[in-house]
Amino acid sequence: MAASNSFACDDTPLDAQVREETRQQLAAAVGLLSREHRDILELRCYDQLDYAEIAARTRTTPARARTHFHRAKKSLKTRLPCCV
User: Fold this and answer.
1) In a domain, 29, yes or no
2) Are 54 and 43 within 8 A, CB to CB?
3) Number of domains in the chain
4) Fewer CB in a 10 Å sphere around the end CB: N or C, the chain?
5) Each residue of 23-82: pLDDT tens digit?
6) What are all long-range contacts of 67-75, with beta carbons under 8 Å and residues at least 24 apart?
């Protein structure tokens, strides 16, 4: 019977638990970001848009979009010391 998830067959229960805890910590940390930082982070990381496209969607400049993205990453790094 095929596995129902996309993870490796040798994934242990501990690996799965660590991955889930990390996912929860990341989701909580992203939830603490400002709406602007969350939006830009999503557009850059999940939608894989470049800064010009992000700027057009958020009605800002590419430089400002880049600044907000880097500030969001910095904020996440301080909130997620285990994952840096």
Assistant:
1) no
2) yes
3) 1
4) N
5) 898 899 999 999 999 999 999 999 999 999 999 999 999 999 999 999 999 999 988 876
6) 68/36, 68/37, 68/40, 69/37, 69/40, 69/41, 69/44, 71/37, 72/33, 72/37, 72/38, 72/40, 72/41, 73/41, 75/29, 75/32, 75/33, 75/37
> Is the residue at 6 inside a domain?
no
The reported pLDDT for the residue numbered 4 is 46
Q: Which residue has the tokens 């993205």?
A: 69
Q: Whole-prediction pTM value? A: 0.73
Q: How far apart are the C-alpha atoms of 66 and 41, rounded to whole Å? A: 10
For residue 69, the enclosing domain spans: 34-84
Residue 16 covered by a domain: no
In a domain, 79, yes or no: yes
